[in-house]
Every structure is written in C-alpha cells, then in structure tokens.
Design brief:
Helices cover about 45% and strands about 20% of the residues. The chain is globular. By secondary structure, the chain is α/β, with parallel strands linked by helices. The protein has 13 helices and eleven strands. Helix 1 runs antiparallel to helix 2, helix 3 crosses helix 11 and helix 7 packs across helix 13.
C-alpha cells in the first residue's frame, strides 16, 4: 500500500519531486527501524572513536532510532574490522575505519581474515586530520632542511617515535628516511599518548603526529613544528610549510582520514541514505565547530569518491611498505 501510494503521488505531483523521492525511498527501505551500531576497532579516545560519537547523537535524532558506538579494540584494529566485515549487510552494523586499517594493515599483516577491497561497502569519508613533524626543542634544527642535514651528519643517532609498528607515524618516518637518504632509529610505543609523553620528556627526538594531539605543546614552545605532511599548508599552522615544499619532496604525504564503511553487499538505497544523512550532520554548525576544535576537516564524500580514495591509498601505501620491507607480524 505504501509503495502504491508513493507511485500515485509521483504521478500527480511532479512539482515536488524531491519530497516525493524522499518519501518513496523511506517507504521502500524502512531504514532504520531499530538500533544502529558503529564499531570502532580501537579503544576510547582518538579521532577514530571521537568522530563516530560526534555524528551518532544527531543521527539518532534524525532517524528516531538509537545510534551507539561500540569499541572493539585489539590486534591493531583488525579484530574490530573483522567483526564489521562479517556483519549482516543491512546497515545496522557499520564500522569507523581509519586509513591505517583500510590502506596500511592489509600490506603489514599476512593473515588477515578479510579483504578490505572486497569485504566492505564504502559509505562516506567522514573527515581527515593532518599530521605534523614535531621535534623536541633540544634538537638543533629549525627547519626540515636543517633536520635533514643533522640526520646526515649523525646517522642513526636520532630517534623518532610512533604509536606502534605499522602505524601511519611509523610509515611516515620510514618514508621520510627513504626519500631524504637519512637514517634515524624507530621507537615504537603502545599508543600515541605514550609516544608524545616521551617526546615531551626528551627521550625521543621527533614524531609525526596528528596536529590536534600536539598543538598545545607547539603553542607553548614545548615542541617545535617543522612541517606538515599534507599537500597544502593547514589553517591551524599557517606559517609552517609542508614537508613537500620545505624539502623539495613533492610526493611526500601522510594524511590521516576516517571512513564509515559497512559489510559488502549492502543495498544501494541504504548506502545512499546513510551517506546523505551523515553528510547533512557534518554540515551542522555545532558539529563543524567541534570537528574544527579537534583539528578535523569534515568531508562527507560520496561512496564512489570514498572507493577511489581507499584504492588510491591502498596502492600507494602498499608500494611504500613493500619497498621498505616493513611487516607487523
């Protein structure tokens, strides 16, 4: 009956086509009519957890159904990703997936039980976060070029930190070494927080870190920002050059991004609805303000755009990881 009514309305009210399309779509899918879960493959804290929590509340209000975030950490995010891949493809279990899990881990771990290119449905790129190379102020380098010269003069002596083997900070450090012909030692920590703490204490020399996690220390002079790992300068640090321009490394880029994906085989109309509504949420003034305070650039890309982005970074990081011979297992 609902479908028939939609057809009648469509025939007799072409002047309000957009409203009719919305009504008919709702009648056909009925999504959502129960609780929706978003799996985060890491523990609480960090952008991969904060972003889905930020959009969950307005989505709940928009849909009239609860949207909850469920942390399922372990194995560098691979446990949560597996749960998301094996869920029913009906839109009620989604996954907040960082670039590391979609583009890096498949090349770092040899025994994953899922294929990121085949076992997930891309929905939307929620947001991106820029990374910045920061030093402890005791290191006598005021620019990327000075750092490169220092590393070449003292090969292997200086250290860089990361939140773990195979993380984007680790790959960025190895890529920097390879592209500049320098050598420095990698110190892996169990999480970003511990690595930044040791950097502040002068126990390591530098780190590639998300801007929001080190901005307070840059502002107070406890850390020195040398360059951002993106294609363009960022508004938070307008006077800090990109590493690409500062060291003439045009292809150097290591941007963190966070996507919303579902299991493979989701109906197109449900994918479209979730993407459309998440994109609307990302335009809400209070949401944009909170994202800005977190150093996150809201995106809200289409499923097709996200598919292209995943494949591009999957191929790019895969080539880098194979060339550097990095393995996490």
């Amino acid at each position: 009956m609902a479908v028939r009514m939609c057809r009648l309305i469509f025939i007799s009210a072409t002047a309000v086509g957009f409203a009719v399309a919305s009504l008919c779509g709702s009648a056909q899918t009925g999504f959502p009519n129960k609780l929706v879960r978003i799996i985060v493959p890491f523990g609480p804290g960090g952008a991969s957890d904060a972003l889905p929590r930020l959009i969950a509340t307005p989505l709940s209000a928009m849909w009239g159904q609860s949207v909850i975030v469920e942390n399922r950490p372990g194995a560098a995010g691979n446990i949560g990703m597996e749960l998301g891949a094996k869920a029913a493809p009906d839109g009620y279990i989604l996954t907040s997936a960082p670039v590391g899990n979609l583009a890096l881990n498949p090349h770092l771990y040899s025994k994953l039980s899922f294929d990121v290119l085949k076992d997930f449905t891309p929905i939307t790129l929620v947001g991106s976060v820029q990374n910045v190379l920061v030093l402890h102020p005791s290191i006598p380098a005021k620019s990327v070029k000075e750092l490169i010269a220092l590393l070449k003069a003292r090969p292997g002596e200086l250290t860089y930190a990361s939140g773990g083997v195979g993380t984007q900070a680790h790959i960025a450090g190895e890529l920097f070494k390879a592209m500049t012909g320098t050598d420095m030692s990698h110190i892996a920590y169990k999480g970003v927080g511990a690595s930044v703490t040791d950097l502040l204490g002068g126990h390591v020399a530098m780190i590639f870190a998300q801007i929001h996690s080190v901005m307070p220390y840059i502002q107070t002079g406890k850390l020195r920002a040398l360059g951002v790992a993106s294609a363009k300068r960022v508004s938070q640090l307008p006077n800090v050059p990109t590493i690409a321009e500062a060291a003439n490394l045009p292809s150097f880029e290591a941007v963190s991004w966070y996507a919303l994906v579902g299991p493979a085989g989701m109906p197109k109309e449900i994918v479209t609805k979730i993407h459309t509504d998440v994109a609307k949420v990302l335009q809400l003034p209070d949401v944009r303000e909170k994202l800005g305070n977190m150093g996150v650039d809201a995106v809200g890309s289409t499923p097709e755009q996200l598919t292209v982005a995943i494949k591009a970074d999957y191929d790019r990081y895969g080539a880098i990881i194979r060339k550097l011979g990095i393995k996490a297992d």
